[in-house]
What we know:
alpha/beta, globular, 5-stranded parallel sheet, 22 strands
Amino acid sequence: xxxxxxxxxxxxxxxxxxxxxxxxxxxxxxxxxxxxxxxxxxxxxxxxxxxxxxxxxxxxxxxxxxxxxxxxxxxxxxxxxxxxxxxxxxxxxxxxxxxxxxxxxxxxxxxxxxxxxxxxxxxxxxxxxxxxxxxxxxxxxxxxxxxxxxxxxxxxxxxxxxxxxxxxxxxxxxxxxxxxxxxxxxxxxxxxxxxxxxxxxxxxxxxxxxxxxxxxxxxxxxxxxxxxxxxxxxxxxxxxxxxxxxxxxxxxxxxxxxxxxxxxxxxxxxxxxxxxxxxxxxxxxxxxxxxxxxxxxxxxxxxxxxxxxxxxxxxxxxxxxxxxxxxxxxxxxxxxxxxxxxxxxxxxxxxxxxxxxxxxxxxxxxxxxxxxxxxxxxxxxxxxxxxxxxxxxxxxxxxxxxxxxxxxxxxxxxxxxxxxxxxxxxxxxxxxxxxxxxxxxxxxxxxxxxxxxxxxxxxxxxxxxxxxxxxxxxxxxxxx
Length: 480
């Protein structure tokens, strides 16, 4: 079993306490261990970040860009090693892990480019002989809390822009999947990131939560995870001047209209629903189908699901990986049991994979006979489970999509341009796709949901700079 150190004040350190990391394809033997830091260690991380920020905010944007570009190059050079660890600790297929690793490098390169541009606007001034502009400045030390489902790309999405803008970070990777985050930190460290600018806190959340969230030096918190935890953080910040960026739950729907290309729609829905075993925040978990094509589409959907191969992510033949932990597997199985009790019909799947009793496997599942009152239609399952409903027309389909507390992503499949644009206008979601998957939003595309799926601050693209920078207005009088 490997023993890994964590990055603290520019040095790789360890403690006497450890957290074991397990492979969800076979949880019997730990594959690695990482330091279990204490609350005092967290406070020291903020000490380092405070000093790191003081230097990094004054560092040339061109030097920041050089560091980010260098880290991207190192990640690409190490892609096989990093992807193997992502698969081992998370369970996703090697192809998915490789794509995630390369996309992390894309984030670094993209924000290295933005760092070179500068952020601001030239404004007209009513006073003679005045020139006025705005400029964006870093806000300070930002706490980054990332989830277990995308253990490399989510830290990249969060850390790359805030570092490019001159902020410092305390980074808490998910306890179940810390290896990917440590790879990301090592690439930045090896590329020349100054000491203290990034500090990685590996530890058990329950033991360090207070120290993580309550430090007075926090300027912002960016979090991806459940609504329960996100709302707890938001309440904790209610009387503090701390920015909060939350990417929370989703219950994403795909609509199949009567004029859709049904075979292509079925392929896209299955890809969006069962990639990463459904453990994507943008995964399709609901399908709304117009009645005239319902039977044909459902038959195509079930046939497409049957082509999936369940197995360990390290097997090249696998197209449906295990869930990321025994806890997550058991949660999904409980959701399935409740759906059946409430009247849903299992068209395929619906149970654990008994051929691999030591892994976290759940068969890809399609449920029919689902009604709006059922929990499986309204609550996030976060697993390989797809619920199907029939509706009478376009308006009913839009109503079904919007009948949700969430509003992250939605898709429509149609050949009619008017229906496509109407859906884009009327769907209450931050991301809308037409004739393609609800997943797969690139680094330069603003990302984030409405309603209970997120907060006012978007991720990705230039929009993320609204979170990690503040605006200063400067007026210069150059006349007599």
